[in-house]
Fold these 3 entries.
Entry 1:
Amino acid sequence: MSIAPSPADLSQCVHCGLCLQNCPTYLQTGYEAESPRGRIHLMQALGDGRVEASEAYRQHLELCLVCRNCEGVCPSGVHFGRIMEAGRAQLYERASLSPRERLFRRLAFHELLPHRARLRAMFGALMIYQRTGLQRLVRASGLLPAPLAEAESLLPDLPAPFEPRWEVMTAEPPLRYRVGLFTGCVMPLVYGPVHAATLRVLRHNGCEVHIPRSQVCCGALNVHGGERQTAAALARQNLRAFLGRGLDAIVVNSAGCGATMKEYADLLGADDPDVQEFTGLVRDVTEFLADIELVPPSLAVRTRITLQESCHLVHAQRIKAAPRDLLARLPGVELLDMAHPDLCCGSAGLYMLTEREMSMRILDDKMSEIAATGAQTIVTANPGCMMQLQRGVARAGLKLDVRHVIELIDDAYGAHAGGRQALV
Ligand code: SF4
Ligand code: SF4
């Protein structure tokens, strides 16, 4: 089946240009073809046969972060994310890719991301590489070719992976909710402590937490890369893993994963009752906690923070108040806003690797805004943003922590004051 942006979606754009000043790539280049309106125009032209899927066409589409900032400000309600995902699928169907690009896509989208065991083995090897001192030797030797060295430098020090002992973890009494915890593909291996903090906070709030071992990657990176068929297979597997457990919610602590999971209807069809049930249950962890009667956090965290509002939380899921509401309840936390907390940090999944130059330009501007706040800690709600901001801190030579919202809540419940670590 051939995939293309739907003419109905494309025709919703009235070309008013109100989105332009909110598009990070347009702000950097000033080119119409690097704006939401310009990209929509290009996709319409490809559909009408007025342009071809040339190298230039491809660059304009690939330079989009799919941050969806344009969606939030569009008066016509253009579904830009959906348009761009279909536009990419159409592009890769038509464009001729080099053998290297084909290999990269095959490895990332088919051989690694969908397979948790392979990822675990790969990150296990990387942990040995980091902990034996091999990493220092390799870095000092300068042997790695530039793109590989860049990817390697992005990797934070790997903690022990998140491997909960049981599939169902009991609540701290009284039992109030039964929830699923979505763990994702790479996150348990790179940011396991964020999952551990999420699990502790949920249990402390009376949640029995189901962590199905049969769950898989949400498919977000595949969707953004135009690989919709693999993404649909992953989505189906997640439906099987989570449905039928009598859950009140499926809690997600990665904004990018949550946005994709809430939109599984675009991949699997809106009429399927299983899809309706599943998407109706998905909640970002901040959304879930802000909606329940939260056990009041009582320990002072004592830090000045600034909040990077992850694009897939604020623009795709339209959740702005929840993280702020939760952070305001933490004793000792002072929030110092940067000038544009809702503007992308340049992470955007694999973009930080594949579009390095633009990613760095956007990141450097972001770090200047952050430095101006005087904050000690950058707080966000998405693992990709955490990785990119850690890279930004190192590039700018700043002394700042980068943490997930849920980690601060966990601190305020005393996770590091002794006694609660044993819960996981
Ligand atoms: S995407 Fe929306 S805001 Fe941007 S030009 Fe089209 S209608 Fe206007
Ligand atoms: S998704 Fe982000 S980068 Fe892409 S056109 Fe919209 S605002 Fe620009």
Entry 2:
Amino acid sequence: MKLVTAIVKPHKLDEVKEALQELGVQGLTVSEVRGYGRQRGHNEIYRGAEYTVEFVPKVKLEILVDTPMVEEAVDAVVKAAQTGQVGDGKVFVTDVERIVRIRTAEQNVEAL
Ligand SMILES: Nc1ncnc2c1ncn2[C@@H]1O[C@H](COP(=O)(O)OP(=O)(O)OP(=O)(O)O)[C@@H](O)[C@H]1O
Ligand SMILES: [Mg+2]
């Protein structure tokens, strides 16, 4: 099992969510975050205004998937979130040791 974490532009959230739903992803977590990349937050346009501060609003998605789904999930996020402009974000994949569905105590792939 893997955790796919994606940091994307806020206005891309719905498109990313829909792309993941089409793949059959069962759930996801969204957080409003702020950050910067190589441009240190400069020269990024957010809602029409150029941000001169260091931190730019982004949305972080966390998606637990079974390992065979990882490539598809990453591809779907990249395709849906890409504008080609700076600040499009990052996707990264980490190993997940254990998942438990709290209601039933089901474990791992059964808990997805
Ligand atoms: N090295 C990093 N560590 C943690 N978070 C990062 C890192 N780089 C970028 N991020 C997060 O991703 C968001 C988007 O980064 P961004 O797309 O600007 O990366 P970039 O490497 O500068 O690429 P680009 O040149 O396309 O802008 C940042 O606002 C930040 O939240
Ligand atoms: Mg950048």
Entry 3:
Amino acid sequence: MVITQTLAGQNSVYTWCRDHRLHHRYSDTDADPHNSKRGFFFCHIGWLMHKKHPYVKEFGKMINMSDLQGDWMVMFQKKYYIVLYPILAILLPVWVPVYYFGETWWNSLFVSFFARYVCQLHGTWCVNSLAHLYGTRPYDKNLQPVESWFVSFLSLGEGWHNYHHAFPWDYKAAELTMHFNLSASIIRFFERIGLAYELKSASTDIVASRVLRTGDGSHYKMGTEKGRAAVTTWGPLHPLNPTYNTTLKAPDAILKPRELTPCS
Ligand SMILES: [Zn+2]
Ligand SMILES: [Zn+2]
């Protein structure tokens, strides 16, 4: 898994996880590395071009990383990332078409590295941008992240983001796994071959009580007429739930900046 993660070229597992944990803990505040309250450009790509907000550094140090620090594979990749990245993310994907299909090095470099990398990165970044800005909040209307079938389509299942932030420990990162959720199937495959274990998932009761307690009413089964009527749709409809195709505006209350107080 560390090998496939290196192929994706999205920084080391250690750095990725630290930023991700920080993102969940302080979502959409100044301590969130890709704070979506700073606008679409910033949370999509701008955060990687910009100096980190001092809170990202300060609060980042408080994130518990002991589990990954105890994993030799993660620490090995972190230490040698500068060597592993060019070999696995550039050289290997460029070499395969040259060796096996007789492509030229230039063609292979532009398609297998540049084109692949650009498409893949934008798909992932849409989770931080689109899936925090445009969509419904059937599980928790107090969280800024939304459900977006379009982002799930682009990112192979990572766009059911209101659910993911409501139940971050659920391996599926979505209530359902049958539409645009290839990531969940891949994790289950790894479980079968013994590389993933103790997968946690929210029970239907837990999900139902959360939907009824904090949802915005747009849930495909447990939503309300009023909640669904508030949703405006665009583009082709999601096969299961038309309310996932939305440009629903976030309630003003959750768009307001949240004050942070340092804690452990
Ligand atoms: Zn997450
Ligand atoms: Zn998020």
